[in-house]
TrEMBL record, chain A:
The keyword Membrane applies. Residues 94-312 form the ABC transmembrane type-1 domain. Keywords: Cell membrane, Membrane, Transmembrane, Transmembrane helix, Transport. This is Peptide ABC transporter permease. It is a multi-pass membrane protein. Belongs to the binding-protein-dependent transport system permease family. It comes from Amylibacter marinus. CDD domains: TM_PBP2. The chain crosses the membrane at residues 12-30, 100-123, 130-154, 185-205, 243-264, 290-315. The keyword Repeat does not apply. InterPro entries: BPD_transp_1_N, MetI-like, MetI-like_sf. It is found in: Cell membrane.
UniProtKB/TrEMBL annotation, chain B:
Its main location: membrane. Belongs to the ABC transporter superfamily. Residues 6-254 form the ABC transporter domain. NCBIfam families: oligo_HPY. One of its GO terms (molecular function) is ATP binding. It comes from Amylibacter marinus. It is found in: Cell inner membrane. InterPro entries: AAA+_ATPase, ABC_Ni/Peptide_Import, ABC_transporter-like_ATP-bd, ABC_transporter-like_CS, Oligopep_ABC_C, P-loop_NTPase. It comes from the Bacteria. This is ABC transporter ATP-binding protein. It is a peripheral membrane protein. Transmembrane segments: none annotated.
Length: 326, 330
């Protein structure tokens, strides 16, 4: 178990190094930092001097290692626009984004398992047909369109739901700001969460359904029937566990991906998270902020994947963690 | 009263071109504690017969008529609840491949305990004790440890032993074993078969053994039923079937055994292949491959005629009775 853990952590570090390298390469090719720092009215000699001082004329490898050293100390550069450390800017926006992802994840897990199982067990039911048709609709409408349609109907036409911002948020644990402490906060997070889940939820329903149908055909299910086991136990003990095992791995990747999907949702709902911030940073060519965003999102992605892999190893008896580490 | 009495059982598979019969009105009986072998080439309908007895046909298969009287009750008329109460309790099944029969994410103990608790009002601890006793009966070393292991931690032979123990958990009256050793290593096939025989004998359990292996049939069973294209074409005492087969198909099966051919020569296989469900010939289904075929065989399906304790479905069997035994005798 410990060996497996160490192995997974090393893999995660390797991936993070690759991400940092890419992010750094982007930084070098995106705009001229000098222009941001001193403007255009400075003579070429002064520029060269500044370049030397800033280390911009050093070999790529030296610059990268310096960047990496700073990054390890939590220094991802200073945002041109906010004039603040880029990491601080992002960390301030992080709770909003993570709560949004959390809301969407709860919706996805809470609905995809019962609906996936239902549609697999009763493939010919009318309800199954309705669910599957809706899931196609959900899959084929882009997130921003879903978001705009929801705003149009529920905010503009019906006036039931707030259409932008986080609403009333409450500070908890000193740093974190949460939507889940007030009614207004809840009202604000519901539509963005639904919009964010609108692609993944249908995908997961279909994934779980397909996997469950597959599992239900297997020999051990027939054997359980031959032993006289009750149907509910066959579905929820024998089949569901085997169904969810492969889904866990896909699910982990998708939740990581969702952090990136927030860019669209946050922009449409003016959600003050790091996704909307990223889009603004791109517009302003705020290179340090862009790079910092990439690294933080990459880190979240790697972290969720590693955790999911560990969970998978723990719940799947056919994986012997002790042996895999060797 | 016999333990099992099957009458005119017909099983069909629904398909786009209508329903195709996989079993054509088969009838047979099994006495209490009796061991019956079902033999025949691939596709003869052996497994379908086994699953039909359990009312466990998977779609698109369905029972289209006939009776399956098990301890006096008709399995085909039972409610889902009654069927569930019967399965694993009074009638148990052993599947072919132990590598895929057990659920990979549940421990052996969980799978044994759930079976007991599905049929009896037992606490987990009581059920576990019974499971332990049964594992000991089938000579599983350190059974206590086995209960907490997952299937993938055990060898195929060990798993099939456990499955035999599971079949015995509730002291069933009948065990249906569908090629229980085919998927196993040859070196342990005989051990498993011997264990199955011993368990059936010592527990007075009826056995329906489905197999390709005539050697196994003669070792384990008292009576044998030969199937061809969804029909029973010959039934009788296993000894008579092996030593004095009446039906040309059975004779062909026996002649195709490696023991019947001198080393180095090719086996005497029956020429041709069994017809598929969608292309069933008229008359006797075997006539397309039979060396003794007559016009009558092509026109009408043969009735069953009795020879001593052997029942045979063949038009030409009377003539063959006179001519053939010398030819077949080894
Ligand atoms: N799901 C199905 N749909 C259509 N036909 C089927 C289906 N399952 C089985 N059959 C047909 O039913 C017939 C009998 O099949 P069965 O499995 O009983 O053969 P078997 O005698 O057990 O053969 P084997 O020795 O290969 O196990 C075969 O012709 C097969 O093609
Ligand atoms: Mg079979």
């Amino acid at each position: 178990m410990f060996a497996y853990l160490v192995k997974r952590v090393f893999q995660a570090i390797a991936v993070m190094l690759a991400i940092s390298l890419i992010a750094f390469a982007i930084q070098g090719n995106l705009g001229d930092p000098l222009r941001e720092l001193v403007g255009q009215s400075v003579s070429e000699e002064v520029r060269q001097k500044l370049r030397d001082d800033l280390g911009l004329n050093d070999p790529f490898a030296v610059q990268y290692l310096r960047f990496l050293g700073n990054a390890l100390q939590g220094d991802l550069g200073t945002s041109y626009f906010f004039k603040e450390p880029a990491l601080d800017v992002i960390l301030k926006k992080l709770p909003a984004t993570l709560e949004l992802v959390f809301g969407a994840t709860v919706i996805i897990i809470g609905l995809s398992i019962p609906l996936g199982v239902f549609t697999a067990i009763w493939p010919n039911s009318i309800l199954t047909r309705i669910i599957l048709s809706l899931s196609i609709v959900g899959l084929s409408i882009p997130v921003f369109l879903t978001a705009i349609l929801m705003i149009f109907f529920f905010s503009v036409e019906l006036g039931w739901m707030p259409s932008f911002g986080r609403g009333e948020i409450v500070h908890v644990f000193g740093y974190w700001e949460t939507n889940f402490a007030t009614k207004d906060g809840w009202a604000h997070i519901i539509m963005p969460s639904i919009a964010l889940s609108s692609i993944m939820l249908p995908m997961f329903i279909r994934l779980i359904r397909a996997e469950m149908i597959d599992v239900l055909q297997s020999e051990y299910i027939r054997y359980a029937q031959a032993k006289g086991i009750a149907p509910w136990r066959i579905y929820f003990v024998h089949a569901l566990k085997n169904t969810l095992l492969p889904v866990i791995t896909v699910g982990g990747v998708q939740i990581g991906t969702m952090v990136a999907y927030t860019i669209l949702t946050e922009t449409v709902f003016s959600w003050p998270g790091m996704g909307a911030m990223f889009l603004e940073a791109v517009n302003r060519v705020d290179t340090p902020l862009i790079v910092a965003y990439l690294i933080v999102v990459g880190f979240i992605f790697v972290l969720t994947n590693t955790i999911v892999d560990l969970i998978y190893g723990l719940v799947n008896p056919t994986i012997n963690l002790a042996r895999m580490g060797a | 009263m016999s333990l099992l009495s099957v009458r005119d059982l017909t099983v069909k598979f629904a398909s786009r071109d209508g329903a195709m019969a996989a079993l054509n009105g088969i009838s047979f009986d099994l006495a209490r504690g009796e061991r019956l072998g079902i033999v025949g080439e691939s596709g003869a309908g052996k497994s379908i017969t086994g699953f039909a007895l359990m009312n466990l046909l998977s779609k698109p298969g369905f029972i289209d008529g006939g009776e399956i009287l098990f301890e006096g009750e008709d399995v085909t008329q039972m409610s889902p609840k009654q069927v569930r109460d019967m399965r694993g309790n009074r009638m148990a099944m052993i599947f072919q491949d132990p590598m895929v029969t057990l659920n990979p994410v549940l421990t052996i103990g969980q799978q044994m305990v759930e079976t007991l608790r599905a049929h009896r009002n037992l606490s987990f601890e009581e059920a576990r004790q019974i499971a332990l006793v049964k594992l000991k009966e089938v000579y599983i070393p350190s059974p206590d440890e086995r209960l907490d292991q997952y299937p993938h931690e055990l060898s195929g032979g060990m798993r099939q032993r456990i499955i035999i123990a599971m079949a015995l958990l509730l002291d069933p009256k009948l065990i249906i074993a569908d090629e229980p050793t085919t998927a196993l290593d040859v070196t342990i096939q005989a051990d498993i078969m011997e264990l199955l025989l011993e368990m059936c004998q010592s527990n007075q359990v009826g056995l329906i053994l489905i197999t390709h292996d005539l050697g196994v049939v003669s070792q384990v069973t008292e009576r044998t039923m030969v199937m061809y294209a969804g029909r029973i074409i010959e039934t009788g005492a296993t000894r008579s079937i092996i030593n004095d087969p009446q039906h040309p198909y059975t004779q062909g099966l026996i002649n195709a055994l490696p023991q019947q051919t001198p080393p180095g020569q090719r086996l005497k296989q029956i020429p041709g292949a069994m017809p598929t469900l969608s292309a069933m010939p008229t008359g006797c289904p075997f006539h397309t491959r039979c060396a003794h075929v007559t016009d009558e065989c092509k026109r009408t399906a043969p009735e069953v005629s009795q020879f001593g304790d052997t029942a045979v479905a063949c038009h030409e069997v009377h003539r063959l009775q006179r001519d053939l035994p010398k030819e077949v005798a080894q």
